[in-house]
Amino acid sequence: MDPTKTILLSALVGAVAVGVPSLSAHAAPAVLDFRQDVAGSLMRLCGGCHGGHETKGDLDLVSHIDGDPLPNAAALQMWQDVATRLKAGEMPPPSEPQPTADEREKILAWVEASLSRAFTAADPGRVLAHRLSKVDYENTIRDLFALKLPRAATERFPDDPTGEGFDNQGDVLTMPPLLVERYLAAAEVVAQAAVPPQGPCSIPLPAAGDNARVVEDVLHELVPRAYRRPVTQDEVDRLVAFGKAALQAGKDVRGALRDALTAMLVSPHFLLRIERQATAEGAVQALDDHALASRLSYFLWRSMPDERLFALAREHRLHDPKVLRLEVTRMLADPRAQSLSQDFGMLWLQTRPVLRAPRFKRQFPNFEPALASDMLTETRLFVDAVVRENLPIRTFIDADFTYLNERLAKHYGVPGVQGDGWRKVAITSPERRGGLVTQASMLTVTSNPNRTSPVKRGLWILEQILGSPPPPPPPNTPQLERRRDNPLSLREQIERHRADPACASCHRRMDPLGFGLEVFDAIGSHRADDRGKPIDARGELPDGAKFNGPAELRTVLLKHLPEFRRNLSERLLTYALRRRVTLADRVFVQNIAKATEADHDRFGALVQAVVLSEPFMKRRAEPNAANVVGVAP
Amino acid sequence: MKRSWMINRRALLRGAGVALALPALDVMAAQKRGAAMTRPNRFAVVYTPNGVNMSQWFPSAPMRDELQLSPSLSPLSKWKRHTLVFSGLGHENARRPEDRDGDHSRGLCSYLTGVHVQQRFDVIKAGVSLDQLIAQTVGEKTRLPSLELAIDPNRGGQNCDSYPCAYMNLSWKNSELPLPRERDPKAVFDRLFNVGMDPARDRLRRSILDFVGAEIQQLSGKVSASDAVRLDEYFTGVREIEQRLARLESFGPLARPPLVPPDEVPDEFVPHVELMMDLMVLAFTADITRVASFMVANENSNRPYPWIGITDGHHDMSHHQHRSERQEKVAKIDQYHVSLLARMMERMAAVKEGSHTLLDNSMVLYGASIADGDNHEHYPLPVVLAGGGAGTIRSGRHLHLREKTPLCNLLLALGQRMGVNATQFGDSTGALPLV
Fold this sequence. Notes:
The complex is a heterodimer of chains A (633) and B (435).
Chain A: H1 3-12, E1 17-19, E2 31-33, H2 34-46, E3 50-51, E4 54-55, H3 62-66, H4 73-88, H5 101-118, E5 130-131, H6 134-145, H7 151-154, H8 177-194, H9 211-227, H10 233-248, H11 253-266, H12 268-271, E6 272-273, E7 284-286, H13 289-300, H14 307-314, H15 321-333, H16 339-349, H17 369-388, E8 401-404, H18 406-412, E9 423-426, H19 440-445, H20 454-466, H21 490-498, H22 501-515, E10 529-530, E11 533-534, E12 538-540, E13 546-548, H23 549-559, H24 561-577, H25 586-598, H26 603-611, H27 614-617, E14 618-620
Antiparallel strand pairs in A: 1-2, 3-4, 5-6, 7-14, 8-9, 10-11, 12-13
Helix pairs in contact in A: 2-5, 4-5, 8-11, 9-10, 9-11, 10-11, 13-14, 15-26, 16-17, 20-22, 21-22, 24-25, 24-26, 25-26
Chain B: H1 9-14, H2 22-30, E1 42-47, H3 54-57, E2 65-66, E3 83-90, H4 103-111, H5 130-138, E4 147-150, E5 172-174, E6 177-178, H6 185-192, H7 199-220, H8 225-251, H9 269-285, E7 291-295, H10 314-318, H11 324-349, E8 352-353, E9 356-357, E10 362-367, E11 383-386, E12 397-406, H12 407-417
Parallel strand pairs in B: 1-7, 1-10, 3-12, 4-7
Antiparallel strand pairs in B: 2-12, 3-11, 5-6, 8-9, 10-11
Helix pairs in contact in B: 6-9, 7-8, 9-11
């Protein structure tokens, strides 16, 4: 049985009468009872559509209101969703009765308290054993051999599957036969490149000694690094055997080494990341120091641990929080930490598709591949600056600088930037750019081939920044089509669309955010008008917040810093753990967000909090498998 | 006679005289072992996304049996005799009445697996797909068990149409292992013809694979049950390559066709699709494999087709809202996709196999997992079967089936024709008679 469920169900037994510390002093009693304090409001506010005669959105709240509010784990997820919609002002729809402030607070507090009770017992979870992804593999080879990886080695790896938006998730990094083939071919290319006598990539060979001895010496040094842990003599010997066989067959010492390295590079100990465990069932256990070293290095560098991490692991010092903090700081200052912007940042922000964004030549003649690539580079360098300079995470929303080269500067209308080189440029006109939501990469990936899409831009902000995407639209949802002969402006069309109550609940949260960015066209260029019509960049959110244009939009977004902080914590934890972060992890996410806020919201503090979190340093044990692998079917 | 075998990339991108020239196929056919004596059957799937324009797809005159081509199927006119058109097929397992979303991903991953996939993110679980079931059955008879091809890269994002993105796959080796698709024609070509084959290297490869197998087995007792699943996958892959190396030896060397695809993945859709289809035809012709799956585009694809005058995205248009200009655009895309099938059939028909052709000895399942792209229904599915199935199919007909006949009945019938020993697949209620 899934231990999270055990924890959950035991927590759900009994009445849910809970303390509510967050309520204002006069608003409510200190303890909330579902029947007494919440059920009536829910029935009045939600019961009309969600239960009884109809169950809109496949949500039946009435049965929970009348019966058991928390029958199982799925109900917790459901209440969490209810709270999210209510909090966002998405529900109830504007045409329906609205909750009083008191009702709203009570419902939210009851959900929060129920979730807290269910998930107090901390289950750090576990990540499935997985192969190195393409990025992991390339970086690991680079660092293992100090080798510039030949392009031929990995160019034929199939695309890595993504999970949760990232290319490093354990549950989908499977090992299909085609990939085994590719790993084998890559091992041959890499081993060949690793052994020539000259060049930066050669393995330094001892000057003298008999050839078998040379192979042994090299492997003794190399195998523990390749397997990322101490190895047994036997493990090395099994590889040395390849070298000896080659020598016997008349190959020279380099040929012998090459054969042994090829075998090493397809060993499951190299290609797979398996965290070994003691056998205690159900228990939570600390990772061993070498597993922790790999977690750290594959999180911050997407590569193998370096000498210092190995040394700390050997000395069993890596679990010391003080040591970990220092290591995180050291690792973030290392050039390899660019991986955080390149691999985490680009996939968190989902901006890579800008390279394949279709645009109509006639309408956007300067949208060339080089410009698209510049857009991506700007965002990567910007994220990298936040990482490298340890800036507060609010910089992502509101910054007074960005990175430009001449082409992109021209595109932005920023004077005085010359040449292909990238440089940090101060933003002097806050009305226009600053922060992720005004960068051309985001503005372009969220546009259609021929026009902007305030809806998609709003959705992007909800998903990537605030972490509260609305549910997908039901089928048969009318979509917008802009026709030249349509007398309505895009905004008028969207507003008409929103008049439909089925659409309104989500769109009144999404669309206004996008309207605020209407001063930017479908490739992120500033515009004064939209095909002759003046730009209207005003927006109003369901909570009444009003803004006009990107600068005021940013101010509104900054008011939602707690949501952004929680979202970024969750995304970074997902990336670090290489597994999905679920409701069961909510306490960990909350703690990470809290620790980050307490340390001035610096990005480095966020990374440290992730590294020091329970799920990063520990894992749930699971019984060992019987030796079943390889038994013929 | 002067022939230029090397096709340069520029020529490919121009889209003129594209891809692998037909004479090469005859060269390949000649060296096949015993092809004239036996009559091997082949199975290919050509999958298209986003459903179709229903009114232009199905033959309008319900004249029993006689095939009258609809506008969308009109490119098949020359190949009518080799075509079977179905109406009435449905795929109940692609539906989830209590859900309102996820039809693209659910449709795709249930299309060949026949299973209903639950909308959850904590486990990835579908089922073995028909092409892989067939590969398990006939894969040992050829150098490669199967090919899995596609045009588009993997879709990214936090989820793919309300499912984990792992479900955006057509071919599944088993319920937990979706297979990666190859989109680089040159890589496929090199794999087909084992380019750079080297006996000494292959000997070393074999001993390395032995070593890896032993390492995996030793390790597997020391890891948890869920981690062992990964090791098992790895072990299976190792064994498959070992078997393949052994087969290569017994089959003997295979002459490479005197032309090669370009080094780079074409950036343009048309030459890319044509190359991938030619590679399938080539692989079948040379009997390198008898099983292939091919995704013409990712599910949910929003690709515009400007060369046929469609500058809007395919998915956007598929939500046509009963507006005629959108429906017409969808029909135009449908017809264009079908013309790619017609081209593939033409190539297959040009390959002689004794007194028959490769087309006679193949079954190409063509279609989509969504019917009308606007409402995401999975009935009636647009399905066409090209080829004669090595004399097991009476083509040139329009099969009117009872309403909501399971797609799996057809899949079962195709599987049986490829030697799969099964009487049931997915939610099948019996193999569809095709003669």
